[in-house]
Every structure is written in structure tokens, then in C-alpha cells.
Amino acid sequence: MKSLSTLVLFLLICSTGIKAQKPILVSEDSLKFGKVSLPGISVTIPEINYDKVLKTWTRELQSGTKSKLVIENNEMSIFGAKIKTLGPNPVNVYSRIMNLDSAVKLTVAFELKKDQYVERSTGETELTNAKLYLKEFAKDQYLDVAKDQSDAEDKKLRDLQKDLSSLEKEKSRLQKTIQSDNTDIVTEKDNITVQNNELASLTAEIIDQNKQLGTTEDATTKKAKSDYINGLEKKKKKVQSSIESSQNKIDKLNNEIEKANAEIPRNEKMQEQMNEKIMKQQAVYDKFADKIKTIKSF
CATH for 153-296? Predict the structure, then answer.
């Protein structure tokens, strides 16, 4: 069962189009520059685009010198570049960048002195250092790509987690609404009980006063009793209005509770789906985090 879930996770990750890290390849090569062929070194940088490499390579070569990179027909040259890995002396650098399938190839010729280039025949140390320099440059570029990919997936993960948090807060709000509405219903029912008792008392009093009014002959007394009865009738209407208002509130509160009770299962289902999405996205993000670690170990 465990192996099956592992397979499902593997297929899931593959289906998301995650690109596993590819190797950075450094090799001795030749650079066609104008009409001549110069001894050089090539490095392939996976998953990066031409413009990004050109911009970074230009900044790299121009760093620490007043010289500017000259570009003509995709042939790049700079005189007096300072590359610490190759030593304290300025060097002339000739290079070309070429797009490959899902990678960029940078080919470079380092001229240490007039017509003396970094190559195996002129010294293993310089060649090794030049290869290391280009590999580190490529590694930094590839890391930037992987970090951007990782950051994008991390944002997706955090957005899903925020959505889950919103659902959890909504469920809590619904539960609190039900609890609060039930408390309010008890309060309104208590009010109805009190008001019904008051209504019964007022009704009995009005009946009794009407009986007395029927046997009263004195005009002044009759007027006073009639006014008193009218007052009781007004109180009765207020009590009836209070009972009706409480009943309306109860009906409204029950309706809210019914809606909340219906919404909670939907909310829980959405949370379950969101947790599945988070688990899948976590797997995707972890894959990119591993990719960064692997590139760093190159």
C-alpha cells in the first residue's frame, strides 16, 4: 500500500511538469571568432534563456574594469577583464552565446598574453581554473533559475495555505454563529414566556374591568375606568408586539442556524480538498528545494 502511494506521488510530480536538475557540462572546445578558430572552453547552462545569460555575462566581465564588452554578430570581446580565478593580470576574453534545446551554451576563449590562450598545451593550472570559473558562473545562473522556480512554487503553496486558513476561520465563524444564535433563541423564548404571562394577566384584567364598567353608572367613574381599560389595551398591544418580534427573531435565527449547519459540511469538504492540494503542492515545492540542493552540490 505504501509503495502504491509512493508511485501515485511520483506520477503526480511528473504530471506537474517539474524539470529535474540537469548537469552543467564543461568541456574543452574551439571558438570560431571572425575568420579564426580560437582554443576555448564551453559550458552549458540548463533551463536558462539567452538574454539572462547575456546580461549576467556582460556584468561579470565588466566588473572591476573600465573596459566595455563589445558585441558584433553574436561575437563578444572585452580587453583587460579582471578574472581573479585566472590570476591577478587582466585578460582578453572572446565569447559566444548560443541557444540550445532547454539550455544555453557559452563558449569562451581566454587570452592571457598576445596569442597565448588558456588551453591544455599552455598549462593545466590555467585550464583547470578557467573551467572552474565557467562552471561556477554557470552554477550561479542555474541556481537563480531554480530559486525562481522554487519561489514560484512556494508562493503557490502559501496561497493554498492561506485559502485553507480562510476556510478554517469560516468554519469557526459558522460554529460561533450557531452557538450565539442558540443562546439568542433561549433569550427570546424566555421573553415570550414572560410576555405570555403578562398577556394573560392583562387579558384577565381587561375582562374584569369591562365587567365593572358595565355596572358603573357614575359618569366620572365610568370615564376613569374607560381610560384605564384603554391603557391596558395599549399595554396588551405592546406585549403582543414584543411576542411577535421575539418569534420573528427566533424564526430568523433558526434560518441562520439551518444555513450554517448546511454550510459546515461543504466547508469541511472544501478543507479536505484544499489539504489534498496542499499535500500535492508541498511535494512539488520539496522537489524544487531538492533541485536547489543538488545544483549547489555540483
Answer: 1.10.287.1700
